[in-house]
Specification:
The chain starts with a strand and ends in a 19-residue tail after the last helix. The protein is globular. With 327 residues, the chain is an alpha/beta fold. The chain has a 7-stranded parallel sheet, sandwiched between helices. The chain folds into 2 domains: 54 residues, no CATH class; 246 residues, Rossmann fold (3-Layer(aba) Sandwich). This is GPN-loop GTPase 3. Binds to RNA polymerase II (RNAPII).
């Protein structure tokens, strides 16, 4: 008895924006199956289509970096130092200001939200305070993602590296959905996005503040769902670096012991759960940043590049190197 069967090969790639479905038939005679050449050709064709599309996406994938963190954590200073470092190593980078309350910059601003809306105007016209006015400005940005933002992004090439210097209001990246919607919009445009979360190293002076910083960072990680690099900023201002280093590579038992010593006995069960969350799931770790050292900036940048696979498909170009001097 001869039974004709149908095989269906489906390549479903929403990120690439299409679905490929191919059918191939084969005949079955008892235990022996005879596959038609159409089946093999279909597989080869599907593989070729998928590889071609994937390669095209890989080549045109652009990189976007979100710099977030509490107010005063050194986000703008970090962006300025990053820009200067990239200028030195001849790496193209563009800084975008997303803070409607910003005033002065130590770097050229490629895009500026204040061209769309400013905090001073909102506070004056609507009578809002600084916090309410900032939320209003960011919601206005969200409403203009398809207009103002897309128009500004069209001025840059696919391989341009854009860094977004974000406001320091913590609720923007902890529970208010504005930045999450902003990130989702970038993802839909096929941008590879990474978040850098800055914490002032002078804040990490004891175990309770360390756990607080971990929870704030974890909240941002969960909210944004992005590759995440946590940075301890202002290491150049820290006098007791040994005390800070204990929190870069913390021992769970030591942390738990310190927490139990500093807090009331009724919190011991909570302390144990918090330490297990930080340790067992390995969700939070910090990279120290000392702006006085080029090696520190270079190391932080390499951590970011690794998290988003930046440069893995880059071609070597003659213009990337200085021409050799003639003897």
């Amino acid at each position: 008895m001869v039974i004709e069967n149908t095989l269906e090969l489906v390549i479903d790639s929403p990120e690439m924006g299409y679905i490929v479905t191919l059918d191939a038939s084969y005949e079955s005679r008892g235990e022996k199956r005879i596959m038609n050449y159409s089946y093999i050709l279909s597989l080869l064709f599907a593989a070729a289509v998928w590889c071609t599309a994937y390669a095209a996406v890989a080549v045109t994938r652009a990189f976007r970096l979100l710099v977030i963190g509490p107010a005063g954590s050194g986000k703008s200073t970090y962006c300025s130092s990053l820009y200067q470092h990239c200028e030195t190593v001849r790496r193209s980078i563009n800084i975008v200001n997303l803070d409607p309350a910003a005033e002065n910059f130590d770097y050229p601003v490629a895009m500026d939200i204040r061209e769309l809306i400013s905090l001073d105007d909102v506070m004056e016209e609507l009578g809002l305070g600084p916090n309410g006015g900032l939320i209003y400005c960011m919601e206005h940005l969200e409403e203009n993602l398809h207009d103002w933002l897309d128009e500004e992004l069209d001025n840059y090439l696919d391989d341009d590296y854009l860094v977004f210097d974000c406001p320091g209001q913590i609720e923007l990246f902890s529970h208010v959905p504005v930045l999450r919607n902003f990130v989702d919009h970038l993802k839909r445009k096929n941008f590879n996005v990474c978040a850098v979360y800055l914490v002032d190293s002078q804040f990490m002076t004891d175990v309770t503040k360390f756990i607080s910083g971990c929870m704030a960072s974890l909240s941002a990680m969960v909210q944004l769902e992005l590759p995440h690099v946590n940075i301890l900023s202002k290491m150049d201002l820290v006098r007791n670096k040994k005390g800070i280093e204990d929190y870069l590579y913390p021992e769970p038992k030591v942390l738990l012991s310190e927490l139990n010593q500093r807090m009331a006995p009724q919190f011991q069960k909570l302390n144990k759960s918090l330490i297990e969350l930080v340790d067992e799931y390995n969700m939070v770790s910090f990279v120290p940043l000392d702006l006085r050292k080029e090696s520190s900036i270079r190391y932080v940048l390499s951590e970011i590049d690794n998290s988003i696979q930046y440069g893995e498909d880059a071609d070597v170009k003659v213009k990337d190197f200085d021409p050799e001097d003639d003897d």
